[in-house]
Amino acid sequence: MIERYLAFDVETPNARNHRMSAIGLTVIERGVIKRTHATLVNPETHFDAFNIALTGITPEAASGAMTFPELWRWVRPLFDHSVLVAHNAMFDMGVLAACLRDYGQAHLPEYACLCTVRLGRVMYPRLPNHRLNTMCAALGIPLDHHQAGSDSRACACLLANYMSRGLEPEKYIRRYSMDRPRTGERRGPVYRR
């Protein structure tokens, strides 16, 4: 049995999706949600109006927050010793990989991860879609959407729900190569068993 999962969610400041303006982290140990933490991140880049409207995070709000390298020093032990979980894992893993590369931060060559969208399609195939807000509404999970802490906790609740219904997460773990190109580029493998 896997000892620890780390559900995480990132918000981005612009359409390039190569920096984060917020991150939410929820730790699940032995099937129990233990804690959630969220923080703004200074992306050190421009904000698009669309992203500000979506997340409510402004350049002014993020300007005093820690930068990604400061954040990574604090969170790396969690990432390095957990199975990562995200709703639409390709997006969140892609943003994380871009930040690690662009800032030259040390990291594992690949991370084990689960995608709760993919698992939702297995567990609840009849839902009209498997977006986070749709899944949470259907299952009665509280959600303040596009707020990183709430999104990461909701993702953890989805995993807990799937496991309570008999899902064995180990069968769905994929390896995400952190050396892949930035989000949106189309070369190289993404996931592997």
The fraction of residues assigned to DSSP E strands is 15-25%
Helix content: 25-40%
CATH-defined fold name: Nucleotidyltransferase, domain 5
Q: What would you give as the CATH superfamily?
A: Ribonuclease H-like superfamily/Ribonuclease H
Strands, count: 7
Task: Supply Rg.
Answer: 16 Å
Assigned CATH architecture: 2-Layer Sandwich
Number of helices: 7
N→C terminal distance: 18 Å
- Which oligomeric state applies? single chain
SSE succession: EEEHHHEHEHHHEE
The side-by-side strand order for the widest beta sheet comes to 3-2-1-4-5-6-7
Number of domains: 1
- Average pLDDT taken over every residue: 93
CATH class reads Alpha Beta
Describe the sheet with the most strands. Answer: 7 strands, mixed
Helix/sheet category: alpha/beta
Spans of at least 5 consecutive residues whose pLDDT stays below 50 are 182-191
Q: Write down the overall geometry.
A: globular
Structural commentary:
This protein is of the alpha/beta class and 193 residues long. The protein has a single domain (4-178), classed as 2-Layer Sandwich (Nucleotidyltransferase, domain 5), CATH 3.30.420. It contains seven helices and seven strands. It has a seven-stranded mixed sheet, with helices on both faces. It is globular and about 45 Å long.
Task: List descriptors.
193 residues, alpha/beta, Nucleotidyltransferase, domain 5, 7 helices, 38% helix
Which SSEs are present, and which pair or pack?
Elements: E1 4-11, E2 22-29, E3 32-40, H1 49-55, H2 59-63, H3 68-80, E4 83-86, H4 89-103, E5 110-115, H5 116-123, H6 132-139, H7 148-164, E6 174-177, E7 191-192
Parallel strand pairs: 1-4, 4-5
Antiparallel strand pairs: 1-2, 2-3, 5-6, 6-7
Helix pairs in contact: 5-7, 6-7
